[in-house]
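In practice, a research group might receive sequence data for several interacting partners and want a quick structural hypothesis before committing to experiments. The following worked case mirrors that situation: the sequences arrive first, and a predicted assembly follows.
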Amino acid sequence: MSFDTDKRLFGEARLNHEKFPRLSTGPVATEPYTSEEYLAREREEIFKRMWLLAGRTEKISNKGDYFVKVIEVLHTSIIVVRGQDDKVRAFYNVCRHRGTNIASGSGNCKFFTCNFHGWVYDTEGNNRHVADESQFFNLDKSKLNLHELKCDVWNGFIFVSFDENPRESLLEQLAELAPQLNDFPFEEMQVAGHWGATLQANWKLFLDAFQEGYHVATVHSGTINEYYTGERNPHCRPSSVRLYDRNRALTIPFNPKFQIHPSEEFAVKTGVSLSQGEAGLKESVPGINPEGDEYFSFDINAVFPNWLLDTSIGFFFIHEFWPIDAHTTRWEATMYFPPPDNAGALISQNQSIALLRDAFREDIATSEGSQAGLMSGSLKEINFADSEVTCRHLYEVVDQMVNGNWHGTRTSA
Amino acid sequence: MATDTILPSGFEDLSRYLPQWLHATEIDRNRFRVARALPELQDFYDTMMPRLEDIANFLNDFPLDALPRECANLLELALMAMEVAPATEYYNSPDVPNAVEHEKFRIFPLHNNYAVVDAVTTSATNN
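A structural hypothesis for the assembly, expressed as tokens:
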């Protein structure tokens, strides 16, 4: 059900809670955003058990391509590699001799050679050579292959699980988002923008900055605010919200009275634009705007636990939030466009890339101040508005899981 | 003739922006933009916007992976125009006014979507 008739986007009805009556409405304690002990429980109950995003397959499109991903919250790094058999695998980046990392960065190889004592592994993880082997005692190389992680791929997104026996398959974890996004043309696109920051903010607090529109009128006041608000939706409420057991999604409309600028006018002639307004109504792609909202701009699909998949017409972008400790998070955002066919398309894409990047710099400017405020201990509880229901949902899903409820909230309406 | 001062014929009026406004990467374009004064950015923006369509129509005849240097220069001016656009269309300021500091914000380098063919050696160099 869409909320996008004119009255409902600035009326008094609290439509998200009407749609999901089982969610609580009371204030939430702030401790989960500041406590190291709480993060330790998140590590055990969530990050060690769930399928985590490692990257996309275009990073490893050829046999022997690999990249290393650091996962600070689990005190490890992993190697994701496409073997000579064309299969994608993930391994702990840990030599089976004395634990050294055997790879860094990214590249292409037939063998990984440890920089410490020269042990060699192939791209399927097999131990192929131990230098000066006679000097070991009863060494069984077949037990000294790289430690493999569960790895699965959905629509080009590579996931790993640190659980030897994952409780759910990847598709089960993606749940309703998988069929909805199945036909979105992810694989037609490549990285066009890539940004990051490590900030003093809890991962949930940091993620919240990107999963609600309530901040838009203030954080982007005088800037991109005009694209998303206007008379019809002065507080940038989502036009529809979907809360699942753990995942969630929201649709953000644009302001139909938005006056397109010259750069955007050019961008939509030779491609698409982040801020295309009415021009975006002329076409569609599969997988977006599942409730058929008017003036669709983009969807925010929050894939539990820690990333957002934002889909629009002709591009998508993702945000990842990797906890380092309870008050430090590494954020990485990547924007994807189809490879430009010609100069016109490349120039067009750069309009969106520059604008989105600048908007992100506004968004993340609030996070450290908020975290510092919570660390003071002065604020014991947070009141979430109806338009911040996605923040409440993330909070409650996490809280259910750290308290042993594997199924999250069961809020599905 | 220095290769960073040439533009295709028909676009010589833009040569006053060469070579200072030419940058091959997003990081360099952004760094350059935020160090300019707003009137400079406005002048560049006002000049470039009406030319973008002509620029695209001209450059579309060339393969992106083998651009002659003068075409790459023209392309980089257009890319710079899009880097500048948020400053003049939205922020009314060279940089984003209420933003996280540059020191904390990382722009990762990416491969470029175009390559320049050096007319002298006829070998493609990836920018």
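Before designing any experiment, note the following. Chain A has a mean pLDDT of 94. The interface with chain B takes residues 191-199, 219, 222-224, 261-263, 266-267, 269-270, 339-344, 346-347, 350-351, 353-355, 357-358, 361-362, 364-365 of chain A (CB under 8 Å).
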